[in-house]
Write a structure and sequence with these properties.
Immunoglobulin-like; 6 helices; 9-stranded mixed beta sheet; mainly beta; globular; 10-stranded mixed beta sheet; 44 strands; single chain
Length: 698
């Protein structure tokens, strides 16, 4: 193809040529041929660009060829040009960037874009990049992707900011007016690394490798499914079945509602299988679970699982009765009232059934239930959501008679408001004789045992067939009761003793036990740490050298106290709350320097007879408060993100936690309110002076 370029006048030696007379101006047409060689399969505009680019490169090389070689200034006597020196350059490696990769087009669209393959490499890449951008812009951005949601969570938590692991500053993550999370370092000294339990991550990696290499060893479990407690499944509900391994949701199962069956394929037999009935808003209406270690051991194949019952979501629920009621048709005394969470919920109890309940609480929450009625002493009992309790009210005359009999038997005077602990020792629900009961927090207290006629008998040194016991004139506060027989621990119970009330201290024991994993790790790095563990459920202290062990616990739902003494001086000893029926027990450790540096940074004063409380909330954004402590200074509540950095928006985020500074020495109820579910997490916690308590909410 040839094109002619016609000029209106000629430019020759910098002069214009025309005749001497203006009227004789003559235009001399000069033209030259321009030849463009191009491939037939290239569009014209691309072919023209190729020619121009080729000419530009040729001109550049011609210019370089005209440059005379220059000699080094220091080598005056040498005629060796600079370009003659050998220069060693590193090897250049070109790699594909992941964000520029293009997926293969579908088969039906291959013919439309086939011409792209025939383009030069540079042109094809530019065209593919333009196509990729068009595809991204044409997406439906109203539906967030997983990566978008993950980035949003990380931005809110401040994790996308500069990592503080290499710094010794207190990092403060806050939300600006535009809604973005920003971070700034301060001058206080503390290390705040990232937090993920390392042992769990290692097991996840091993599990992933096992899934790839040994897929044939996976277990197929199926069994009957039952929905009880008045629950029903509609088109607005769905049932979700998953394996839960130490708080990590893994394989997803399936449900056949017509046949009433479930089945799930699991990688290993660790953890539990959890079934939830969820509505369209994501609210859990009912739940059921079983531990995988209960499934009969077998090789890979189909295993018969136990019946999985989905029951209404666990709440605080139970029955309040009278220890002495002359009216057989009445269960509870007239005008009985019960309160939960230190008066946050007050409920009138019907005397014909004695039922009392509080909903909108999470599984495993704990509170002190207080019940009272006219002419009866108040009864206080620590109750746990999901387990139905039974509490008794004692007439004032009955307690007064008990005090008089004990005072006469011991030849002492018992004055003031009654402070009583009353309970029963049972084994798998049946009263147990021969149990010796002591108050560990005050071993000077002498127990009162009742004979078969329900009369205090000073000759008894252990419980009779009715299993009853009592302690009188107890110092108000938090106390721990321990029951033994033949120097073997039967069980324990924690109680809250108050003036003018009876603390219910039933000690339950069972022959049924469960193996529970126990982990000790750095709260922010997840690194396993050794430590010495003291648990109410264990007779001896336990040395955990690798940060992971398995403990055998009785299957009784109750509040338990655990103390962990870390090895070395980097971490601080702390008290932890657990339940014997927990599927796993985690003990995150924190640095004392982290607490004190944040306290110094915020300029919080030290107050006498106070302690620290640190909590971790993994599931959702939240707020925290102390029940019945409305005058607690909000400045003493500090929220932090998953890396331990302070949040400025006065609310907690999922994966982070909180610090309560200068908590008065007392028995408290720490309450966490979820921002998404609006459900309440609560823990009963005794706080001692200059002590650290660590709570986990899951």
């Amino acid at each position: 193809m040839q094109l002619k370029r016609i000029l209106p006048f000629a430019v020759l030696a910098g002069c214009l040529c025309w005749s001497s007379q203006l009227s004789g101006l003559k235009f001399i047409p000069i033209y030259e041929a321009l030849t463009i060689k191009a491939q037939k399969n290239s569009p014209p505009h691309i072919a023209f660009e190729e020619v121009v680019e080729s000419e530009r490169i040729s001109e550049e090389w011609a210019r370089l060829a005209k440059i005379k070689p220059a000699t080094l200034a220091v080598e005056k006597t040498s005629s060796t040009p600079l370009f003659a020196k050998k220069i060693e350059v590193p090897e250049m490696v070109l790699t594909k960037r992941p964000e520029t990769l293009i997926t293969s087009a579908p088969v039906e669209e291959a013919s439309e874009g086939a011409w792209v393959e025939h383009l030069p490499v540079a042109q094809a890449k530019r065209l593919q990049e333009a196509q990729r951008r068009s595809e991204i812009l044409n997406q439906d951005w109203t539906v967030p992707t997983w990566s978008d949601m993950a980035r949003e969570v990380l931005e809110k938590s401040g994790a996308l900011a500069t990592s503080p692991s290499s710094s010794s500053n207190v990092y403060v993550a806050g939300t600006s007016a535009s809604g973005q999370v920003s971070t700034r370092p301060s001058q206080a000294s503390v290390s705040v690394p990232d937090r993920t339990p390392q042992g769990v991550m290692d097991e996840r990696a091993e599990g992933s490798q096992s899934f790839v290499e040994e897929k044939n060893l996976r277990h197929y479990i199926q069994g009957p499914l039952e929905i009880t407690g008045g629950l029903a499944v509609t088109n607005e509900h769905h049932i979700e079945i998953r394996r839960n391994d130490e708080g990590v949701l893994k394989e997803l199962g399936r449900v056949d509602l017509r046949q009433g069956l479930y089945n799930i394929e699991v990688e290993d037999k660790n953890g539990t299988v959890v079934a939830r009935l969820v509505d369209k808003e994501g609210k859990t209406l009912g739940e059921g679970s079983f531990r995988l270690n209960r499934v009969a051991a077998a090789n890979a194949g189909t295993l018969q699982g136990p019946k999985l019952k989905i029951e209404p979501h666990p709440d605080f629920a139970g029955i309040v009765t009278s220890a002495y009621n002359p009216k057989p048709n009445d269960v509870a005394p007239a005008q009985t009232r019960a309160t939960f969470v230190k008066g946050a919920s007050e409920i009138a109890v019907k005397k014909d059934d004695g039922l009392v309940a509080m909903d909108n609480v999470t599984k495993g929450s704990m509170t002190v239930m207080r019940a009272a009625a006219p002419k009866h002493l108040q009864t206080a009992a620590i109750v746990i959501s999901g387990k139905e309790f039974k509490s008794q009210l004692y007439p004032e005359s009955m307690i007064k008679a008990l005090q008089d009999i004990v005072a006469q038997q011991r030849a002492q005077s018992i004055d003031g408001s009654p402070t009583i602990i009353w309970g029963k020792v049972t084994l798998d629900g049946k009263a147990l004789a021969g149990a010796e009961v002591v108050v560990e927090s005050d071993e000077a207290l002498i127990p009162v045992y009742f004979n078969s006629f329900m009369i205090p008998d000073p000759q008894l040194k252990s419980t009779s067939d009715n299993g009853l016991f009592a302690f009188v004139d107890v110092e108000p506060g938090f106390h721990s009761i321990l029951a033994t027989r033949s120097s073997a621990i039967l069980g324990y119970q924690n109680v809250v003793v108050e003036e003018g009330s009876v603390a219910q201290g039933d000690v339950e024991s069972t022959i049924k036990t469960e193996a529970v994993p126990l982990r000790i790790y750095d709260a922010f790095t997840g690194e396993a740490r050794p430590g010495l563990v003291t648990m109410q459920s264990l007779q001896e202290d336990l040395e955990v050298n690798t940060g992971l062990t398995t403990v055998t616990l009785p299957h009784v739902s109750r509040l338990g106290l655990m103390r962990v003494q870390p090895e070395g001086a980097d971490y601080v000893s702390a008290r932890y709350i657990y339940n014997d029926t927990d599927e796993f027990i985690h003990a995150p450790l924190v640095h004392w320097s982290w607490l004190t540096s944040i306290k110094s940074f915020l300029r919080l004063d030290d107050m006498p007879s106070t302690g620290f409380v640190v909590g971790f909330v993994p599931d959702e954004d939240f707020e925290v408060y102390l029940a019945a402590y409305d005058n607690f200074d909000p400045r003493q509540i500090v929220y932090f993100d998953m890396q331990g950095r302070i949040l400025q928006n006065r609310k907690g985020i999922a994966g982070g936690g909180f610090i309560l500074f200068n908590v008065p020495e007392d028995t408290h109820e720490v309450v966490v309110l979820g921002a998404r579910t609006r459900k309440m997490y609560s823990r009963v916690l005794p706080v001692d002076a200059n002590s650290l308590s660590v709570l986990t909410f899951r």
